[in-house]
Every structure is written in structure tokens, then in C-alpha cells.
Specification:
five-stranded mixed beta sheet, alpha+beta, PEP-CTERM motif protein, Ice-binding_C, 259 residues, signal, six-stranded mixed beta sheet
């Protein structure tokens, strides 16, 4: 018996049983998109009536978005967001092709400055990032399926196979066998496709901050600061403004929610 898979299944069962998940997949997500023949991830907040978390309903940068762990039991934490969506494969030249999400590495921002109450106005300085220890291994799965890999033994997920149309709710599970308090974790990924005319993405980051009762305990504003630090702020040329506008429209009009 695979102990890790059994533990993950148990944690997921406990998590979903104890959490209000009427719209389980709504929240901070990343839309896979193509800009100037290169893959990017556009962070956004999904839902019928999404609420801006301070970083923008659609992030003003590419390739970084955060979620929050939920503590499960007494010694572990798990998250099911950020997730991914491929909403505009026809416009992006991905019809008939695969899209792969490959884990490159993991890291952390330990001991980030504490929140002073000024929210986004606070300057947290340049994040001091470091490598994970063996005790901080993150385990990754996709859509609750068997299999997966970890930061100790990286692998890849095929998030779109011979695409014939949009694929929504590509949801990962992020598990760690401890309960973070003052540390924000991140995973470095790369998007790629077998379409020879589309280049692989630059590094893309999903960021995970601690569980907590409020934004201070969740290190929410520190996580937004790390998004801005790791994200790609420069909008690619040429035609970037019209492409970004199209992407925003696609996020809020093209995504149909599942119950």
C-alpha cells in the first residue's frame, strides 16, 4: 500500500467534509494563455461575483498567484488552489495539442516582516527566499486522481491532452506534513506544449501561505507582495494591451461555472 497516497486521500476527505465548498473551484486561479507565441499564466479570481483580494480580480502581472493552506488534523496542511484553466485554446493555437505543467523546484519565504495594518501600502522589502528542507516536502496531485509527485521527486501533469475545446477546473492538491505559521511556500513550474510554434513559459509560481482566522495570520499581504516579486510585470510586445483586454473578457464571460 502506498502510504502517502492513502494519507492524501484521508486528508482530502477530511478537508472537503469540514469546508464549505459550494463552489469548490472558485477562487485564485491561473488561466493558461499564449502571448506572442509563448505560454503564460494569468492569475485571476473566479466566481459568479468574485471579490478583489487586494491584488486585482485579474492580476496586473503574469505567472504568479497565491492560495492559502487549510490545516487538517493536528500535523498537516492541504490546499486545492491555485488551480488552472485553459479557457481559450482556439484563440491561443492550442487545439489538437497537449499542454504540460512541469514542476521545476520549490522554495519558501520564512520570517517575512509582520503586517503593520496598512495592507497593500506596506513595503515588505525584497523577499529573502530559501530552499526547502526535507521536512518541508510538498506533495502534489491533480483533480484528486491517484499518482502525483513531490518537491523531492519532481514530475509533470498533462493538464490538456489533444485539446478540442476549453478545459476548466484543473485543480491541484498541495499537501505538506506540517502546519505553516510564519512561512510562505512556493512552487516553480513551467508550461509547455507540443505545438512547435509556441514556446514554453518562463518560470511560473503557485504560492501558498498559512491557514489562519484573518489576513494577518494568513500572511495574505505578504503573499501578494511575493506574487508581485515573482510575477512578470512587463506586458509582452507587440499588441499586448489588446491581448490582455481579450484575456480579461475571456476570464469573466467565457468561463462557465460547474456546480
Amino acid at each position: 500500500m502506498n502510504y502517502k497516497l492513502t494519507l492524501t486521500a484521508l486528508l482530502l476527505t477530511t478537508f472537503f467534509a469540514s469546508t464549505d465548498l459550494v463552489n469548490a473551484h472558485d477562487g485564485r486561479r491561473m488561466k493558461v494563455t499564449v502571448v506572442n507565441n509563448q505560454l503564460f499564466g494569468q492569475g485571476y479570481i473566479s466566481g459568479e461575483t468574485p471579490t478583489d483580494d487586494g491584488g486585482g480580480l485579474v492580476r496586473p502581472y503574469y505567472n504568479a498567484v497565491h492560495g492559502h493552506f487549510n490545516n487538517v488534523g493536528s500535523s498537516a496542511a492541504i490546499a486545492t488552489l491555485p488551480g488552472f484553466d485553459i479557457l481559450t485554446p482556439a484563440e491561443d493555437g492550442l487545439i489538437g495539442f497537449d499542454v504540460t505543467l512541469t514542476l521545476l523546484s520549490g522554495g519558501k519565504w520564512a520570517g517575512a516582516p509582520t503586517q503593520d495594518g496598512t495592507g497593500l501600502a506596506q513595503d515588505f522589502g525584497t523577499p529573502e527566499l530559501s530552499n526547502l528542507t526535507a521536512a518541508e516536502t510538498l506533495f502534489l496531485g491533480m483533480n484528486g486522481a491517484a499518482g502525483g509527485f513531490s518537491t523531492e521527486s519532481p514530475g509533470a501533469f498533462t493538464i490538456g491532452e489533444a485539446l478540442s475545446g476549453p478545459v476548466e477546473d484543473i485543480d491541484l492538491t498541495y499537501e505538506i506534513d506540517l502546519q505553516p505559521t510564519d512561512t510562505i511556500y512556493f512552487l516553480e513550474w513551467q508550461l509547455s506544449t507540443d505545438n512547435p510554434g509556441i514556446a514554453s513559459s518562463e518560470s511560473l509560481y503557485t504560492i501558498l501561505s498559512p491557514d489562519g482566522a484573518n489576513h494577518v495570520e494568513k500572511m495574505h499581504f505578504q503573499a501578494l507582495a511575493l506574487e508581485r516579486h515573482l510575477g512578470i510585470s512587463a506586458v509582452p510586445e507587440p499588441g499586448s494591451i489588446s491581448l490582455l483586454a481579450f484575456g480579461v473578457l475571456a476570464l469573466f464571460s467565457g468561463r462557465k461555472r460547474s456546480s
